[in-house]
Specification:
The protein is an alpha/beta fold. The protein is about 40% helix and about 25% strand. It has helices at about 45-55, 75-80, 100-110, 115-120, 125-140, 155-170, 185-200, 215-220, 240-245, 245-250; strands spanning about 5-20, 20-30, 35-40, 60-65, 70, 85, 175-180, 205-210, 225-230, 230-235. It binds adenosine-5'-diphosphate (ADP) and magnesium ion (MG).
């Protein structure tokens, strides 16, 4: 585990082109251990593309992504996950009729590209027990310990999001990438999510989130990187970003 303040994940001059479209233009940013960094910007700014470059889902056209001191562009996502990077998806992916525990255990195993059922069938009893134990530990860590045997589909959306975080924690990551974790949540659910992220941060986790919900971001994160038209237009503390002219213009300019 990196020490608090260490740079865990870094983009250096990352450019990503889709044909003639420059979705990320010379983007640089750093995520530190024990820090929550938000990546924000109007629709189409290039946030998801950046997220994909950082998580190894996609490979930059030029520039580098450095994870724990090692260049990861072009590496397999499975290998990156094994080294301690974990992510959640914008849309919750759960098997509604299975238990919360099974969902986390299977998700923990799924990090490759296998289908759910083939992965279940391939497990022997010993492996299965290891996964179930790890899943139970992580569910307790995120505060879902009383729901282990509930049907996942019976959980409220906020709890399902937290289930996804438990799943992401099963690989013992040092960096967590979250794509719009607060989307669609009620106020109380956002508060519970924020409390969990603060707890993980206090444990030394590096957290990067892409998020639309400004109240959620401003009250939670340590630093913000703002994108518009594929570029970084501002970076700083929440209170600085709230007053930043370029940021205000980007948001008032219509695209959002
Ligand atoms: P955001 O997440 O900030 O809304 P995106 O990263 O999704 O922005 O998109 C940035 C730009 O890149 C948009 O113009 C989008 O249409 C384009 N884009 C994203 N992914 C692809 C792709 N796979 N192929 C072509 N264009 C893409
Ligand atoms: Mg997006």
């Amino acid at each position: 585990m990196p020490n608090k303040g260490d740079v865990v994940l870094e983009a250096k001059n990352v450019t990503k082109k889709f044909g003639g479209l420059v979705a990320n233009n010379d983007m640089s940013l750093q995520v530190h251990a024990g820090e929550i960094l938000a990546l924000i910007g109007p629709n189409g700014a290039g946030k998801s593309t950046m997220f994909n470059q950082l998580s190894g889902v996609d490979t930059p056209t030029s520039g580098e992504v450095i994870f724990k001191g090692e260049k990861i562009n072009g590496q397999y996502s499975r290998k990156i996950a094994q080294q301690g990077m974990s992510r959640t998806f914008q849309h919750v992916k759960i098997l509604a009729e299975m238990t919360v525990l099974e969902n986390v255990a299977i998700g923990g195993h799924l990090r490759g590209h296998q289908g759910v059922f083939s992965s279940l069938l391939r497990l022997d009893r010993v492996e299965e027990n290891i996964l179930l134990n790890e899943a139970k530990l992580q569910l307790e860590r995120v505060g879902l310990g009383e729901y282990l045997y509930a049907e996942a589909g019976s959980l409220a959306l906020g709890q399902q999001r937290i289930l996804e975080i438990a799943r992401a924690l099963c690989s013992d990551p040092c960096v967590l990438l979250l794509d719009e974790p607060a989307a669609g949540l009620r106020l109380k659910e956002k508060e519970a999510l924020a409390a969990l992220l603060l707890k993980l941060k206090a444990e030394g986790m590096a957290i990067l989130l892409v998020e639309h919900d400004m109240d959620f971001v401003m009250n939670l994160v340590d630093r913000i990187v703002v994108m518009e038209f594929g570029q970084k237009i501002a970076e700083g503390l929440p209170e600085e970003i709230q007053k930043n002219e370029a940021v205000l213009e980007a948001y008032l300019g219509g695209a959002a």
